Amino acid sequence: MKSVVINSSFAYTGTYVLVITSRKEVGSFLGFPVYRVESMKFLACNEALRFSNSQEKRDEAYFMSLLKTVEATPGLYYSYETDITVNLQRRCKLMEAWTSKPLWKQADPRFVWNNHLLEELIEYKLDRFIIPLLQGNILKLLLYHAFEPICVGLSFQVTQLKLKSSPATFTLLSRRCTRRLGTRMWRRGANLEGDTANFIETEQLLELEGFRCSSLQIRGSIPLLWEQIVDLSYKPQLRIIQHEQTPQVVERHFNDLYQRYGETIAVDLTDKHGDEGQLSAAYAEEMQKLPNVRYVSFDFHHVCGSSNFANLQVLYDKISEEFEKQGYFLIDKDGKILEEQRGIIRSNCIDCLDRTNVTQSYLAQKTLDIQLQRLGVFTSTEYISMFPEDYVKFRTLWAEQGDEISLEYAGTHALKGDLVRYGKQTVAGFIKDGMSALSRYYDALDLVSGRYTVSKSNPSPFQLNSFESFSYLPVASALLIGGLTLTTFSLQQAARNAQHYVSSVVWAGVTAGAMALVKANGRQFCSRPRLCRLL
């Protein structure tokens, strides 16, 4: 298939162009094809690296390793013919003059992942980048695609439902905000502008006999200033950052939500004890200062345990009246607006992944039942759960969406995917969860998003940290493994020779000391972001 330039990036050696080299059509949004990026490649537009000094060459190699990571970034989608950053309700209220603009002008910048990199292409009208590529015979480009596509960090799933012989298209779109990009652990809470980590707008879209129903939910990290720095422990400690602007940060966040979505119900799913309990209490305290937002605390683990999915009815009973009053968006085949959504549910746990996904899928099921009853497909006593084939499809789509969101933020599939798919935790899923939790430490987004800008006038970001974790971790690992091996060997020999008891004690002491040293300096032994401050 043809290659498509989607953006440009800068490093010490000049300009790079990011090119989509493979795509897959995964469905349609409101009748327009949607593609998932399957593979990308960065191409250099010049050979300035030959004139760089040794430090710049080392830095360039690291920057290129980040770009290689971006080439494999999951969850990037685009469409040539429609703007997938805008939900159906907002789209229907936009002026016709707005929708006639190019896609890069229509798009909601919160969800455009290559927005920063497109700026240079737009400013210089492409010539600066297209000419060097063509002269170098790297690839042939179609100029009319050069501003496209607007790449969206998205989870996109679509399926067909039968619904009592009334065929329907059911679509899930989860748009991931770019304002506080980053991965689990390294991006927590809010910044001073009120933007939160892992903020996602999820749209559930039902198309049936010319009618289109849309319902929105949002998720995002707890909008306080807090962190959870990675160390070698299974669950690093949460720390609330005491800051004089914390009340303003929370207020900015919810004012932005009100302007975009209307009245907000903030559902907090965190535990009420331990580190989570302290964070939840601080959140609840700040929410008391906001009279126009309803805060609902629901300890998911306490009420639902590990698999009691149906207990979410307890939460629904608390919010059902306001939730149903918020409504959903509905238009008929002529585009006439029949219903509007007048508010939003904002859910969060700590990661805004597993507990949040289970809760959102439960609320989405309630909305789907209400919509199908409104359209006359179901009677007032019928629900989607009564139709096994369609119900499995519904739950599967929500589970797949949870997996994709988790992969983008945490690097693994969702831990409670089985709970969403089957309503219970399977043994295979439990084992998979343990493996997943061990591999959730990675990050490589600041460079491409523009949060960090490469400049020769700035000092090398890799000379600022004198302690290099990757230099010391192998030594510490060797000491631990060697100590454990020698201790075990000495104990085995102790039965034959009493002197081996002494060496066993010595090696056990050395091993314990090494373990204590590594644990005490766990943060330093872990790889961590180098380009930008965490806040």
From TrEMBL:
Name all SAC domain ranges.
67-411
Q: Which PROSITE patterns match?
A: SAC
Q: Single GO cellular component annotation?
A: endoplasmic reticulum
Q: GO annotations under biological process?
A: phosphatidylinositol dephosphorylation
Which Pfam families does this one have? Answer: Syja_N (PF02383)
Task: Look up the domain of life of the source.
Answer: Eukaryota
Q: Name one GO molecular function term.
A: phosphatidylinositol-4-phosphate phosphatase activity
Show the InterPro entries listed in the entry: SAC_dom (IPR002013)
Show the coiled coil region(s): none
Among PANTHER family, the record links this protein to: PHOSPHATIDYLINOSITIDE PHOSPHATASE SAC1, PHOSPHOINOSITIDE PHOSPHATASE SAC8
Q: What is this protein called?
A: SAC domain-containing protein
Q: Which organism is it from?
A: Gossypium klotzschianum
